[in-house]
Hints:
- The chain has helices at about 5-15, 35-45, 60-70, 80-90, 105-115, 130-140, 155-160, 170-180, 220-230, 235-240, 250-260, 275-285; strands at about 30, 50-55, 70-75, 95-100, 120-125, 145-155, 180-190, 195, 200-210.
- The chain is an alpha/beta fold.
- It folds into 2 domains: about 5-210, Vaccinia Virus protein VP39 (Rossmann fold); about 220-285, Helicase, Ruva Protein, domain 3 (Orthogonal Bundle), CATH 1.10.8.
- Helix 6 (about 130-140) packs parallel to helix 8.
- Bound molecules: S-adenosylmethionine.
- S-adenosylmethionine binds next to strand 1, helix 3 and strand 3.
Amino acid sequence: MANLGIPQNTISIIQKYDFHFQKKFGQNFLIDPHVLEKIIASAGIGREDFVLEIGPGIGTMTQYLCEHAGQVMAVEIDKNLIPILEETLQEYQNVSIVNQDILKMDLKEIAEKENDGKRIKVVANLPYYITTPIIMELFESRMPLESVTVMVQKEVADRMQAEPGTKEYGALSLAVQYYAEAEIVANVPPNSFLPRPKVGSAVIRLTCHKENPVQVKDERFLFRIIRASFNQRRKTLQNGLANDPSLSVSKEQVAEALESMGLSATIRGERLSLQEFAALSNLLK
Ligand code: SAM
């Protein structure tokens, strides 16, 4: 089968099957061999790897994955794409095509059944309307993950990689950094897709920590504190946390905890690192 990264080949397949792009599924197909090669190289895919691809589309990146990986599972929600994938991937024996919504799958079970519980790599050009839910589901499912290399909206990539004190820094940055080390590996212009998205894109690699970078008494409490801090971004941390009834902490308790950490009582949440949020959550719990 011809390389679908070449725009003319993608157009031929779309015409042959009279395929109509569905906006509700975030369908923007890659038509740029350089970008495809860059993604495969950044993810470091080799024959020892089991790769989960979310949203294969017509199979453009899947072809590249099959050429490099040991085994590939491609999960696609749009049933109209399944016959196309069966044709474009017919020469590969190391791929399974699954017609499912990735958010409805038991990801931990996939790793157990398909890869003997060993760590898997996720590679995807994600549908932008559900980028964050997918990333959080991958981490929170506690499936054994080695890395997640994904194309996302540029602005979302910036938020994932952001450092304290910057305007991009927020709950998403902290959640991603809790589970992985984030690195933007390429910026990708709208021209690399069909149809062209309205926004710029970036490829980000999240290399999962083998051990948690911080030790917390209660993970859920840590994330509740993080969310409360950024819900009211303009407020001081002590007001933000005291105003959130689900935390049941007083302004005085927050001030005392901050003081014992050597931080000002009027500090804003956007200044605190993951390590400081972890320390604060342990003091308040
Ligand atoms: N991988 C292809 C490429 O790079 O050309 C397509 C990428 S396109 C941005 C996103 C793909 O994800 C589409 O094929 C879309 O149908 C699929 N998709 C959207 N929501 C999904 C979901 N919840 N579960 C699985 N696939 C989904």
